[in-house]
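Write out structure tokens for AAA family ATPase.
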Amino acid sequence: MTGTSDNSITKARLAGLIERDDQWATLEALLTDSLSGSGRVALLTGPVASGKTELLHAFGEASGVNFVKATCSAFERDLPFGVVGQIFHPLDAPAEVGELLDAATRSADGPAARQLHALCIALLDLTAESPLVIGIDDVQHADSSSLHWLLYLIRRLGQAKVLLMLSETASPRAAHTPLHTELLRHPHCRDVQLTPLSALDELFEMPLHAEGAMSLSGGNPLLVRSLLDDQRLCKPRDDGGLVIGPSYRRALVSCLHRCDHHVLPVARALAVTGENATRESLGRLARADAETVASALDVMNEAGLLCDGWFRDPAARGAVLDDLSTQDRKEMYLGAALLLHDEGAPATEVAPYLVMADHSENPWMVPVFEEAAEHALRDEQIDTALRYVELAHRACVEVHGRAAIAAKLVRVEWRVNPSAAGRRLATVVPAMRAGQLSDRDVTSLVQPMLWNCQVDEATEAMERVRRTAASSAGLRAMELWLACSHPTLARRPQSEPVKTRMVSLTSGPMLKAVSALANVLTYGPNDSSATDAEHVLQAARPSDSGSWGPESAMLALQALVYADRLDVAAQWCDKLLEEARAKNLAVARAFFSCVRAEVSLRRGDLTTAFEHAQNALDFMPAGGWGVALGMPLGILINAATKMGRHEDAASFLEQPVPEAMFQSRYGLHYLYARGHHYLATTRHYAALADFLSCGELMTSWGVDQPGVVPWRTAAAEAWLLHGANRDEAKRLINEQLARLGPDASRTRGVALRLLAATNQPHNRPQLLQDAVVILEEYGDQYELARALADLSKAHQALREHRRAWTVARRAWHVANVCDAAELCEELLPSRGKADAEDAQAEEKPVDPIATLTDAERRVAALAAVGYTNREIASKLYITPSTIEQHLTRVYRKLKVKYRKDLPADLHSYLPSTA
């Protein structure tokens, strides 16, 4: 028989069949027996898409004898003798066979035994001289009339030259059919089983792809071939991994549709409910009994569609879901949600299904959405929480409940889009006025109201809360926050100053943060306020689960900034910014970028300040900042002015700002920055008006601290530059110095620089040198450059030219680091600047220790020999916190992390007291 040569096996391999040598050999043996006059039956069984059809067709074509085939379909089960007709049609049968088939087909009572006998004899007569191979694919779907005829034929194949090949998808249900019963009794029937492929190395060039394909397909030949097609047709992955494309998805869905009808509903239920679904829940969703579910799972596992009862890849699950219509998918998600709710599943499991079902029409869903929203807030999934609250609001029909949810919707949306939250207030304010909101809800609305310039509504809300909740912790925090941010609306009894209000260890982060800020604004920098602020930041997250969102952390950071703890504030800003970036929290990133910009501005790092302020407005556009726009915008104006970019500063001033901003702390930053722009562009009276406005507001609000904005020194500088009232300038400077006391600070350094301008030339150098020492200690590079520039001029006035030149060069270098281009040009204009740059290029690398200030060298030297911070503070008569700030800068400049890494050369700088 030529058809069973090696060439036949090669053809089968080319058809995509692998590891089928044993099955092929079995079929060859059966064919040999049938050609000798002993009919045989081969039952090809295996999971769906395991290659049964290909093996049946390939062997029939390669057999070398007459081959006829029939394909069964579940859609044609009601067509009598449909399979028999496919077999006789290609044969050269007498006309009476066709008439017999027509008569049997028209029989109302089904085929009679004589008709089956006649059709069987007709086939056997045709094969008396010419052997025949018959292939029937998917015989489990054959119509009942054809099955009867097959059973009749099988019992009469004893001496016929016929090989009957039947292919069938393995199924527990198929094992109990009459066909299987007859085949088990037949002595010449062989079961030819096809199992999934066990190795794919021959098909995939890369071992990694072969391994991945086996994991994705379970060895199912159809899925393997689809993966091969995806590698050929789809764009390769950047990492060189296996591509999972549309061919794989189509093939997997095709496999499910080719299984018994009970398999697909279970597969869809599994895709909807997830990996942890039980057989009971699958049965309820698929509307099938436990036995049917178990059978379906077994079928899918054996076919390689599942692995241990779950899809092998998310793409497989997605393909099953995509095969559903939109309406069917929503209904199944809703069914899953109802099922989980009935079983007592937590809201975090039920709510996602309701979202995917886009269904929120039943009252029982309201508490589910609300509880799920609280969990999402705690996990900092703000967008998810917002979606849940929106659905809860849609589902709620009770008036007071709906109003409370609307208030919560404002609070949650404020964290992702403050301006959108402001628009929602229009629906909440009427509910507040109708008494449908609790005191807690009303209190929570004050912040977004003021943020969005709704001052009248906020005032009304506060009056309501003050009448009904006079002693609540929420009202206490709100009053302090108003005193810090919107002082004109605050009502703080004079008999109970902020400093005496003790904040307990159990106080919430908002109360502790706002208390720390209030103490700094009222009484100036102090260690206890800085400690409270750090306590808040240690427990802070980029998005707090409380109603204040990330503002508690922002207030704590501002307390540190106003207290001149810039290094500590910078470290916390960087940490919180990174966390907010990782979680893609735009509002939190905007807040922390704004504070980080203020820190950089006060350090004189103008470029960094400008970049962070610009980032703050990129993360949250101007419309979202509301009344707080004065902070990032003020930093941009101030940084651009100090860098000499006056046109940029002027363009920022063209940005519209809300009028309510000027009655808030945020407006002070804007007025102060605008005043400096006016001062730099020789509009002295306009500048003075802005600085004095800051002073009037701060004095009337009871927050007259230079840590916010040092308006006295700014106004004094305006008078000095105008040259009209030096006495008033001197009075303001002396008043500022008196309020500061003996403690060093950035503002004291600036005040000493300006005071020198009001003194006789021979007194100026000492005052300016004192200013330089203080500004070096506090790390304000821009003000240090200005102090050095004034010191150079003072030496020049005293004809100390060499010393003036040396100081000017140092001032230029410091100004250049700040990117203060205008100041650089003033110090070493045109050719002088070029000479300085050339000289700088020729210099040898600078010793890192030389970059330290005198104060930093003394601290670093003592730390290098083993003194603790407290011991160093005692020896140098400064506070431990100042020691920490010095060491932070030392580590940064020397690029070390620990005391043990400090260079030994520092020993030569030990003070004599050591």
